[in-house]
Amino acid sequence: MKLAALRLHNVKRFAGRGIAIEGIGDGVNVLCAANEFGKSTSFEALHGLFFQSHASTAGDVRNLRPYSGGNPLIEADIAVGDARYRITKQFYGGRFAKVTDLASGRLLAQADEAENFIAGLINGGAGGPAGLLWVRQGITGIERRTSKEEESERQVRSSLLESVQGEVEAVTGGRRMAEITAAVMEENAALVTATGRPKAGGRYAAAIEARDALAATEQRLAGEVTALREELDRRGKAQHRLAELEDADARAARREAITAAEAKFETARAQADRLKAAEAELGLARERRDTAEREHHQFTEALADARQVADESGEAARRRDDAVERRHAAIAAIGKAQTEIDAAEAEAQAARELLERLDAATKAHEAAERRTEHEERLKHAEAVRATIEMCETQLVQVRLPMGAVDELAGLDVDLARIRAVLEAARPSVSVAYEGGAAARVTMGGAALSEGEERGYDGQAELVAPGIGTITLRSNAAGQDDGRLEAVEARRRTLLAAMGVADLASARAQQVRAQGIEAQANEARAQLVVLAPNGLDVLREAVAALAAIDPEPIEFKADPDETRAARDAAEQRRRDLVQTVRAAEPAREHADATFVAAETALAKLQTRDQQIAAILGPAEDREARGQELAARFAERDAALAEAQGEVDAQRAAALDFDAVDAALRRTRSVEQAAETEIQQLRETLAGLSARITARSDEAVEEAWRETGEALAAAETRVAAFEREVAVLARLTRALDTARSDARDLYLTPVMNELRPLLGLLFDDVAITFDDRTLLPHTILRGGQEEDVDRLSGGMREQLSVLTRLAFARLLARDGRPAPVILDDALVYSDDDRIERMFDALHRQARDQQIIVFSCRQRAFQKLGGNVLQMTEWQP
Q1: Alpha carbons 831 and 303: distance in angstroms, whole number
Q2: Half-sphere exposure in the Cβ direction for 870 (13 Å, CA)
């Protein structure tokens, strides 16, 4: 299989766009471009086309989709032998896959049939040869991979070596060894998994399941036999306990104990009721005594407060009178100053109004001057604006498209280069005359001078006097690939669009346009100076000033004298304000003192009213005090008497809580006995039923039979275990034998790799790992080194050379696949990379190699077929 073209639309960075890589041929094909140009995107699109189902939404397919969404479309033209096909896939919305025969245009397969067709081309999916040879950016193939990826690629390499090598007489290392190993692995896979566990659904797993099921059944039956024996014991114990509880003497004793406890409880409850009544009388007596004490104490305190309030009221009245006098004096002083402030403010206001009229007259005169100035600026600005419009009109006629002159110059350079290349590729002839020769050879009727080199196309005739006519034929296809005509057509189209005859005319017109544009820019700069905010703002300013009367307003007042009078009045007002402010604290202090004195008097009056309410009329206060003292003494004696009665009854009463507890205990004993009797009867009924059922099921006989079947199942599992061990031992022996025959097994790939290594390294030998079939160690200068310890450049070079060797083996086996390298040589130095280029060309004689790289300068020396990305619309 070989690639001929790749096209993609709406893939990753090409959202809503399509690009195409056409003209992919045999040998080395190179696409060099800067980073972020789309090389890796093209590689991933090609990988998705061949290795991802069109119906998939897996991670690799999601990565093809742009951030903006949409449906990625990818197609490739391929050649398989003499046939050419076009494979097309679209993912997500409207997803499809189809294969078309390019020769006839016939649709060969679509949907799943198209996927099967593609799978047949790549021989095994991502684990097939194409997956082995296509190198993603940043992957060498030698670094550590997942175990699944490593095993998949190892099987491909192993299958390829066995197919190319052919039959080997010895069993080890050839197809016979592979068949034996496959048979052993098949037998082993039928029994166990890759990790050694029994395989689900296999004979070994079925034997283990049968054994485990019998073991579980045997354990269950053993438990039932044990449970039956335990239930027989429990039934005997329950019958004995029931007989004890239902004994007549025991029942009578429990009943007599309850009767005695109930009688004692009634006596204790009567005593408790009498004690509660006495305690209630005691509480009432205590409340009355406390009330009398509180009233007597309150009366005594009120008498003392009455004397204190009388003294404080006289002092508070004196302070209030002083505060009233100071407050009146402060208010009078502030009022006088405020009157003088009002007079000064009126005088200052009159002076200010006169000054405002004087200022208005001055501003009117200045506005008239500004009106004239603005009108002149507006006239000049409009003239400049007209100049700008004229320049813009001329620029529309002479301005060339941006970059058109540079593009035309580039096309002229391309034409000269292409013509030079064509001229250099033409065959030529020259003649070296012997000394003294007079005759001259002619070509097309013109004589050829000594050493003159003259080219020709197709064929030419040389006339040699005295000899004859010599006909020269190049017998080579024309070198013109249409690029010259294409560039000339583009040049004619561009000249027509520009309206000029040649590059000189275009540059002259460009210079003229630049001159007009400079004049316009100068006029714009003048306009900015004349009208910084634009012509409209300037016109509005002129219109606003036009309404001002230019005639000045005359006043006879002197502005300086008026301003001095205003300042004097304002100074006098400020001085008076300071006087008022100085008097304010005294007034505020007097107000605060007055308020405090009034508040104190009000509080004292309130206290006096409260005291009067407690003490009553002054003439009755002494008698009321004696009455409250006598009541307190009487109620204190009644409280002592009630306390004595309560103490006497509490000493004679039974402990009610103890009696109540004894009654509840005797009743609970009777209740517990009845409950246990009922539970024992139910337990005996359940035990008897279960014992009868198990006896009918013959549990012990089933237990013994299950034990015998379990022993047979364990014997069968042991036989399978021995078989698995034998297969494992055989597998190890086969692996050992194959490892011993490694040199013979790896001969084909070593034969292909040896000349490639000779291009890069001197005296280097490589050892392959017989497990991974990849380079493991190298021997140079008599010293062995692990591949993992080599530099990044040497590892990637070994990786690429190994893939080239396997690619040649695939081609020899009749399964050619293209080698695709996406920036696979990023660590190689200048000398090594040129040798790698030689290796690529050596392998490309009958092999297709496609190289993507961002190292444009380094890969110029690779040569080959240069690929280009072009816009494409599906």
Answers
A1: 123
A2: 10
Segment 642-670, tens digit of pLDDT: 788 778 877 777 777 887 888 788 878 88
Distant-in-sequence, close-in-space partners of 511: CB < 8 Å, separation ≥ 6: none
Residue 490 exposure: Cα atoms within 13 Å on the Cβ side: 15
**Residue entry with tokens 């007259």:** 361
Give, as one character, the DSSP assignment of residue 261. Answer: H
Cα dist. 579→348, 583, 592 in Å? 18, 6, 21
* Amino acid making up residue 153: E
3-state SS track over 56-111 = CCCHHHHHHCCCCCCCCEEEEEEEECCEEEEEEEECCCCCEEEEEECCCCCEEEEC
pLDDT of residue 106: 92
Tokens for 159? 């299958």
The phi and psi torsions of 150 (rounded to 5 degrees) equal -65, -45
**Could you give the CA distance from residue 40 to residue 32 in angstroms, rounded to a whole number?**
11
Give the start-to-end residue ranges of the domains of the chain.
2-174+741-871, 175-245+664-740, 294-411+482-614, 427-478
**String of b and e for 419-443 (b: at least 16 CB within 10 Å)?**
eeebeeeeeebebeeeeeeeeebeb
CATH class (in words) of the domain with range 2-174+741-871: alpha beta
Residue 172, both tokens: 């080890």
Write down the pLDDT at residue 125: 37
- Give every CB contact of residue 151 below 8 A, 6+ residues apart in sequence: none
Distances in Å between the alpha carbon of 171 and those of 178, 738, 741? 9, 9, 10
Look at the alpha carbons of 61, 64, 70, 71 in this order and tell me if their dihedral is positive or negative. negative
Mean pLDDT is highest, among 61-70, 256-265, 838-847, for 61-70
> Residue 433: which region, alpha, beta or left (left: phi > 0; alpha: psi -120 to 50)?
beta
CA proximity to 70, closest of 51, 91, 52, 53: 91
**Structure token pair of residue 772:** 């991974």
* Contact call for residues 628 and 296 (beta carbons, < 8 A): yes
**Dihedral of the CA atoms 394, 395, 398, 403 (nearest 10)?**
180
What is Dmax (Cα atoms) for the chain? Answer: 182
Task: Assign 856 to helix, strand or coil.
Answer: coil
- 12 has pLDDT over 50: yes
CA distance 741 to 739: 5
What DSSP designation does 453 have?
Answer: -
Cα separation of 5 and 13, whole Å? 20
Query: Among all chains, which residue has been given the structure tokens 């030689």?
Result: 838
d(CA 517, CA 642): 124
Backbone angles phi, psi at 444, to 5 degrees: 65, 30
User: Cβ distance 731 to 146 under 8 Å?
Assistant: no
Structure tokens at 633: 């003494």
